[in-house]
Amino acid sequence: xxxxxxxxxxxxxxxxxxxxxxxxxxxxxxxxxxxxxxxxxxxxxxxxxxxxxxxxxxxxxxxxxxxxxxxxxxxxxxxxxxxxxxxxxxxxxxxxxxxxxxxxxxxxxxxxxxxxxxxxxxxxxxxxxxxxxxxxxxxxxxxxxxxxxxxxxxxxxxxxxxxxxxxxxxxxxxxxxxxxxxxxxxxxxxxxxxxxxxxxxxxxxxxxxxxxxxxxxxxxxxxxxxxxxxxxxxxxxxxxxxxxxxxxxxxxxxxxxxxxxxxxxxxxxxxxxxxxxxxxxxxxxxxxxxxxxxxxxxxxxxxxxxxxxxxxxxxxxxxxxxxxxxxxxxx
Length: 331
Known about the structure:
This is Flagellar motor switch protein FliM. The chain has helices at about 5-20, 25-35, 50-75, 90-95, 120-130, 145-170, 220, 230-255, 270-275; strands spanning about 80-90, 100-110, 115-120, 175-180, 195-205, 210-220, 260-265, 295-300, 300-310, 315-325, 325-330. It is of the alpha+beta class and about 325 residues long.
């Protein structure tokens, strides 16, 4: 039903209030009652909307990295996108998982605790079939996995942890490590049943097969970095990165700047009359002794003392001492 009233409906409502058929105070009380929301303490919301948005951005990047990785490994087109990001009790998540599925348990130091990547069997077997040279067809036989199939599948998802590390590097530098490979969720207990977890569901399509990849991260694991998931931290980090980039760019430009370097052989003073009558082969006597080091200027600033010489038939000058503001540092 539309929330926008027509002019006739507005006139009828005002008329009813005026005549006393409807009580304005009663309407106000009804409106206040609608604002009361039911809160389930068994399903505590530990992540704010801002933090959920940050987790969504992180795993959107992870989905793009996985798309590139799996497309290269399986030599076919793979499409992975974020379907949803939800927070719920661990017990509720584990009940939603199929009785037999592919579960990869891993940890990410320095974060403490275990995390889980659950892959729908249809997707995992389609990937395995493609990896072994097939067309990417799915045959669900989780109960009868051979040792070779288990090894290949575990290695396939172990490679995806590098992309997980790269996706999280803007928040924290982690080192993910695969711990275990399990097919029965009943044998897996990451945290207590009532512990809040965030579940990131990725939709994956390969050939004619599609399914979900669920990433389960307990709240207790993310607790040390939860402040970093706020929008303020993202903006501050981006501003810091931009500032560092500007400083680096400025340094490169300064390093590429050209400065004149002059080795001064000596100085002399003559009067204007002698200067006006200078001719070819005339000699001007310098006040600089041949045994004294030469003054080297950077631009117009005295910077070094050196002695002249030759390198491979080219004139050169060797720096002997460094000066500071025109003063010898040894003085």
